[in-house]
Amino acid sequence: MALHLSVTSLLPLLPHEHFTPECKFKESVFENYYVTYSSILYRQSQSGRAWYIGINRDGQVMKGNRVKKTKGAAHFLPKFIEVAMYKEPSLHNIAGQSPPRKTAKASDSPAPQNFSRFVKDSESRH
């Protein structure tokens, strides 16, 4: 069971079993590579400033309307994901692994059998 973080107007952060609009956050990366998360749904009523996720020095979650993006409580270090690099196969390797192709026979072609006569007739008309 996955839990989603949500911010509400009454409580700082809550885990939710279901994804709601209160669980949507905007991730912003600063020049110093710290990451902040602001609520998509909630903003300050007077200034319009976004609510941010913040953790104080004691490790307690702060209310979103009390956290500013410039304060250390709102800065998080991103977790780097290990990336696996794969070499793209060349067309020669792919052609060697593919099943043999079907070759077209003369009888399979949709061209009419009297095509040579048709070409000769059309050349004589010009």
From TrEMBL:
It holds the Pfam family FGF. Residues 92-126 are annotated as: Disordered. GO terms for molecular function: growth factor activity. Belongs to the heparin-binding growth factors family. PANTHER family: FIBROBLAST GROWTH FACTOR. This is Fibroblast growth factor 14. The lineage of its organism: Eukaryota, Metazoa, Chordata, Craniata, Vertebrata.
